Sequence to fold (410 residues):
Amino acid sequence: MTEGHVAPITSSERIGELDALRGFALLGVFIANYVFFAFYPFASMEVHREAWSEDPANVLALQATLWLVSDKANTLFGVLFGMGFWVQLSRMKARTSDANSLYLRRLTILLGIGAINLYLLWPWDILFVYAIAGFLLFALRGLSLRAMAIAGLVLMLFSRPVVKTTSRELGILGRQEGLVYNPDAQASRFDTIINGSYADWVREFAFMTHEGFFLSGVLISWILYALGRFLIGAWIARQGWLERIAELRPRIGRIALVVLPLGLALEYVHMAVNNDMMELPDLANQAVHMVGLVLAALGYATALLWLYHSKSLGWLPRLFAPTGRMALTNYLAHGILFTLVLAGFGPGLALAGSITPIQTLMLAVGVFVALSVFSHFWLRTYRYGPLEYIWRTLTYGSAPQFRRQPAIAR
Fold:
């Protein structure tokens, strides 16, 4: 174990499978965020949503996003965070006795980045939640394997419904609905998005965040939701399976063949119930969804891992790896770009209320492709994404080498 200066991991130390999975998860995050946030009562009025609901293409875009993407992407992304946590902390401990302090500093910086994003750039930020859940994961790192798996699974399946039900019983969600979601508040917020200044945007969404996120109890709900996924990710990494993915490929393929169709079938039922195509009691529908999304996310991950080690198709999941290596930069960029699409201040296009679900779906894919191409070419010259470089520099207290060394001619 070395003391003193500790450098971040090099490119050769990265786990390519995790980068590919992270990039794939980001695609789902982009789609879910763009399609649903443009449709929610924040950036559209009821008259817009009613008109979109009469267009089969828009209905299909919403249904497909709910069925194939919603909650699956953030589940996969959260599990990957937990896996990355265990890998990074283990590597830090192998290099220095100050590993715990370094990782806590890393989380503190992420909390700051999340707060900036939440209040100044993208009011639907998840980094703030991830940082808080990361501190809780750090506190629980000493759990036994069994306890970590049980706690993670329980939180994955039950955290959101329990917290939301409790909040409703206390009357907190009623207050949230009155302050944030009533028609007058929606109209005011929509006018701010279209006609307001940047200062108006910040002020309006700071209020929404304070009342609809912090005081409502939704923040606690999302922290527990994320923590469950983090614990499962850390549990997976502790098993040592990451080092044996190629060896376990046949078993991974068999798992994908079972859980992906089953998970998507359950999620289709959930989508159908939510769109009045089927009927189920609310509790049964919620149970179907919570099990289905976990199985679908596991199915996506195992299918991608199986492809990653395919001799003929391995190139396909590897296309996602550069985007995943620059996940922080790309996540913040996707929010800033969508803000400029929805809002009217500065160079904003003021398309809130007029950009339809099918258009936001195509926009999400287009933005992802553009950022993926950017990431690919950026990483040819630099070892880290721009924000990843800043994050590492602040974490370790010194700037690592940024540019790649030019290849030596032979």
User: Anything to note?
Assistant: The two ends are 36 Å apart (CA to CA). Residues 78 and 229 are 5 Å apart (CA to CA). The chain has a mean pLDDT of 89. The first helix runs from residue 16 to 39.
